[in-house]
Amino acid sequence: MEMKIAERIDRLGTETAFAVSAEAAVRAATGAKVYPFHLGDINLPTPQNIVDAAMKAIRDGKTGYCPNGGIPALREALAADVSASHGVTYGMENVAIQPGGKPVIGKFILALMNPGDEVLYPNPGYPIYESQIEFHGGTAVPYSYREGKDNFVIDVDAIERSITPRTRLLIVNDLQNPMGAEATAEERARLAELAVRHDLYVLLDEAYFELRFEGTSASLVREPGMQERSVLLYTFSKKFAMTGWRLGAAIAPKPVADVIAKLNVNDESCSNHFVQYGALAGLQGSMDGPRAICAALKERRDVCVDLLNRIPGVRCYRPSATFYLFPNVTGLMARLGLDDYEEFRRLILTETGVSFCSRLHFGRPLKGEEERYIRFAYSGIDVDQIREGLEKLRAFVASRIG
Amino acid sequence: MEMKIAERIDRLGTETAFAVSAEAAVRAATGAKVYPFHLGDINLPTPQNIVDAAMKAIRDGKTGYCPNGGIPALREALAADVSASHGVTYGMENVAIQPGGKPVIGKFILALMNPGDEVLYPNPGYPIYESQIEFHGGTAVPYSYREGKDNFVIDVDAIERSITPRTRLLIVNDLQNPMGAEATAEERARLAELAVRHDLYVLLDEAYFELRFEGTSASLVREPGMQERSVLLYTFSKKFAMTGWRLGAAIAPKPVADVIAKLNVNDESCSNHFVQYGALAGLQGSMDGPRAICAALKERRDVCVDLLNRIPGVRCYRPSATFYLFPNVTGLMARLGLDDYEEFRRLILTETGVSFCSRLHFGRPLKGEEERYIRFAYSGIDVDQIREGLEKLRAFVASRIG
To answer: Is A263 at the interface with chain B, CB within 8 A?
Structure first.
């Protein structure tokens, strides 16, 4: 016999990027060289003060359950930290600690979306938005970005045109994966005005808010009327190189934070207890660790952008934040005589070992898309390997198109 | 403005036991003595070999993401371990590692229950079953236990009478929280026969399978036709005193394990990476740690049962497993002239500091219930405190009813 799976699972999406990882792993297992630009993991160590604090917490017996919404000290420290970086005021009652940033996506939707509601989400964007909206019975309505002068810009006009009486939620990922896009002050003002005018609730996914190399991040939550209608997705994963520790938070108006913590009671009970002491040390201790992480990533960005732009038919911005690049490869694919993303990706992987994701891994392509993009993550590959890999890519392209 | 919460949240339950913890904490904060019998947490240290292996994994850089369903080594080791203890054969493809045992409950329901399906679940029982069934649109159909010679016994006749053409899932918690009940060979055979005959899928919550003091646990999954229709809930929390580490697993036929891992992709990404190396050491290393945990708990059980049975109007079994007691206090409440559970619980807390949960914290009471029960957890309180607290309780009762 085979167990019959529930119908809702038909609507469940996934991160197809993992399939790219699996392919790369298969190749690596044969002894072939792989240059891993496909996954947004970080190959830098977690700062030692965080490790030490977590180990001390284990020794101190912080191995039992803790409150569902997190230990009070961490909720308080995170509220203070985000208040300072965002220019708004949060208290610990606004913070629900989560086992990662990702759980905030599903919990935001469970807490605030009714079946049949329309939800605006970025596409290309993190594929879990689309998956969770549809899984829980909503209608996923994509909005996109267009190429601007120095970086991608949100197509706010398209968002406005997509709003209907059924539109209830808006998902904003600023700074953005996979594009490295960052909302300008004008974009933030317009988004806030739209959200307030149409009474939209906003998931503000700020996973990369503090992972930047120049300038300062500014949050949509600071715009008039936004704090009271927004859920912030916070994660310790990127700033502190803690992806595998699984710790993040939802930051929201108290009634919503309470609902999210009640979802935690039902799902995870609580987040790992002693990891929260590590994160607390991260927030309150020296910022040398996060600074070193950003410095390493900035060097990689510059090498990666410079080399990509030297390849004919490739055009790549230099985003000030995130660890992603989203080069336009329309020209390159045309010169190689390829129209299919997967064919292109596999050709490059096979011929050069350079492994990356394409636009296809970030939501269902939209009607009328003509430009072709791929995504390079430089968080999991060292500078010398970036150089070596992209040199091979350049040589391969030269050999093919002369 | 206030954000409007989605309608489904009206159907979301919680663990009301946390409210008892909060009350006890308030009392303790005033300097008053509290004897904590209310929460199933463990105040014993995690075995050192597990701590050491987790710390080594951090030093070895196991701080990035790992596969959604867990690291292969742990999945393989757990499959081997459960195969040996259960007398069936599982492979790593059957194992999806989770951040705790609890996440298996919701994922089982999401994976296998369609809205409108009826789900049989134990009541009194772990309150999250009822909550998750109703939250995801099912109909929660309770079944109960009755008092047997040496322990509570499942009312299998009542289960059979409750089955309708809409019944799709059966939740079995063996060994059981809050009752400490354990299915007999005959009960297991009858449950399996019912499940096969009515084509029910089974969540077999075995969180306490290896937390026992005499005898050997036997699993329902070994009965004919059961492995192919069951999802096992496994947790590292109890056997290894790792509640706050948050690690467990779903063990299921491969297609279901795959769906559950796909739910992980959407929700938690993965479970904490280095914690999995700790758990691996737990499974493969010395069993001195788990043995010491069981020895400590057995001593507590005996002291607790003996003292409870000395209180007039209290009748308590001596279960061979779990760390719960579910004394019948019908006589005591009657002699104190109390009918209301909460009034009784608060009186005892205020007068003696003895803090416990009642039947009310384990699902909505069923029609026609006449006997009164409370739950004592002895996992979070040392023997001397058990003695002191229960002596106070006995003295208080004596002072009231002579």
So the answer is: yes
Q: Which residue of A has its CA nearest to B252?
A: A3
Q: What's the number of CA atoms in the CB half-sphere (13 Å) around residue B397?
A: 24
Domain endpoint, select from B284, B316, B341: B284
Q: In chain A, pLDDT over 70 holds for what percent of residues?
A: 100
Structure tokens at B309: 């049975």
Can you list the alpha helix ranges (DSSP code H) found in B207-253?
A: none
Return the pLDDT at B388: 98
Q: Which of residues 5-64 of B touch A (CB under 8 A)?
A: 5-9, 12-15, 18, 39, 41-43, 45-46, 51, 54-55, 58, 61-64
Is A294 found in the same domain as A277?
no
B235 and A57 Cβ atoms separated by less than 8 Å: no
**Whether residues B256 and B129 fall in one domain:** yes
pTM: 0.97
Question: What ipTM was reported for this prediction?
Answer: 0.97
CB atoms within 10 A of CB A200: 21
Q: Which domain holds residue A34?
A: 7-45+289-401
Contacts of A9 in chain B (CB under 8 A): 110-111, 259, 262
Q: Give the CATH number for residue B300.
A: 3.90.1150.10
Whether residues B228 and B309 share a domain: the answer is: no
Average pLDDT over residues B159-174: 97
Total number of domains in chain A = 2
Picking from A100, A132, A272, the nearest residue to B245 by CB comes out as: A272
User: What value does the mean pLDDT take over residues B142-149?
Assistant: 96
pLDDT tens figures, A250-308: 999 999 999 999 999 999 999 999 999 999 999 999 999 999 999 999 999 999 999 99
Same domain, B135 and B246: yes
Alpha-carbon distance A260 to A95, whole Å? 9
